[in-house]
Structures are given as C-alpha cells and as structure tokens.
C-alpha cells in the first residue's frame, strides 16, 4: 500500500518551505535615512509607506534602526523630548543584527526568536542592505507551527 497523495504533497510543501531562503520572502528595495533626519520626517515616511521601522545609515553602513515604538518610548514618553528638534540619532536602536539574503528562512526565524525582534535587515555577500524581513513577510511563507513558535518567542516580555 502506498502513501496517500495528499500526504506526499503536504510533505513536499513542508520541505520546500524549509528550503526557502530569506531572499524569497523579504521586502526588497529598502532605503535608509541619516542619523540626522528629523523624527517628524521619519514618522511621515512610516505613515506614507505603512511601515513600522526605518533603517539608519551613515558612511555607507547600517548604524541603527528607528521603530515606531522607539519614537514613542524613547522619545515622546521622555520628559525632555522635543519632537520638533529630535533626530533619528536621539531614539535609534544601535547594534543592529542582520541576516543574509541566502540564509535559510528557518535560520532567520530562529535569529528573530533569539533576539526577540520583529524585523531584521537583510544584507548580501558584499554586506550591502538589500531588504528587510519581518514577521509579516514570514507569515506568508512559513509553516503554521514554525510561525506560531516564532511569534510566541518574539512577543515574550523582554
């Protein structure tokens, strides 16, 4: 007796998902802004592009990331914060972790879990940023079990 066709198809789909690369699911064409960019400009970019983070670059290197949460928690919630004068440098998160475009999707998801981050910049072999991978991108491509575990880990209280 053979294995039912639907089981074979499900196994093939699972194996294909495991073999997926970051470049297959990432958001391509991401730009960065300078650390001296005003927070008000960053907020407008986020609204215009319906995104929650903006990479920060200087001297041709990724130096940080500003998220909508950074603007609120490190900026607006601070007593001395002046939104009219604040720049990316004032609220950005430094020491950004990345993944490579040719990494396995499962590896990138594990990295997101370990770091408890919702987004990772993606670099190529030349260490140039070529995109960002987010939980939203992953949700369209990974297995339900893998996604559930990643979301659970990333969403745990820090």
In summary, what is this structure?
The protein has 158 residues and is α+β, with helices and mostly antiparallel strands.
Please, could you describe this protein's structure?
The chain is of the alpha+beta class and 158 residues long. The chain has one domain: CBS-domain. Helices cover 45% and strands 19% of the residues. The protein contains 8 helices and 7 strands; from the N terminus they run H-H-E-H-E-E-H-H-E-E-H-E-E-H-H. The protein has a 4-stranded mixed sheet. Helix 6 links the parallel strand 5 and strand 6. The longest helix is centred in the first third of the chain and has 15 residues. The chain is globular and about 65 Å long. The termini are far apart. This is CBS domain-containing protein. It comes from Bradyrhizobium yuanmingense.
Task: Quickly give the structural class.
Answer: alpha+beta
Q: Order of SSEs, N→C?
A: HHEHEEHHEEHEEHH
What percent of residues adopt helix (DSSP H or I)? 40-55%
Give me the count of strands: 7
Topology:
Blueprint: H1 5-19, H2 22-25, E1 27-28, H3 39-49, E2 53-58, E3 61-67, H4 68-76, H5 88-91, E4 93-94, E5 99-100, H6 105-115, E6 119-123, E7 129-134, H7 135-139, H8 144-155
Parallel strand pairs: 5-6
Antiparallel strand pairs: 1-7, 2-3, 3-4, 6-7
């Amino acid at each position: 007796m053979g294995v039912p066709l639907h089981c074979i198809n499900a196994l093939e789909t699972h194996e294909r998902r495991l073999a997926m690369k970051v470049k297959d699911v990432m958001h391509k064409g991401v730009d960065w802004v300078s650390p001296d960019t005003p927070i008000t400009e960053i907020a407008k970019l986020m609204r215009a592009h319906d995104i929650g983070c903006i990479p920060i670059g200087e001297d041709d290197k990724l130096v940080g990331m500003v998220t909508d949460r950074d603007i609120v928690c490190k900026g607006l919630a601070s007593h001395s914060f002046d939104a009219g004068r604040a720049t990316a440098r004032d609220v950005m998160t430094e020491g950004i972790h990345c993944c490579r475009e040719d990494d396995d999707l499962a590896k990138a998801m594990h990295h997101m879990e370990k770091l408890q981050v919702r987004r990772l910049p993606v670099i190529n072999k030349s260490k140039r940023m070529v995109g960002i991978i987010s939980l939203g991108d992953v949700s369209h491509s990974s297995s339900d079990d893998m996604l559930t575990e990643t979301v659970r880990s990333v969403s745990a209280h820090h």
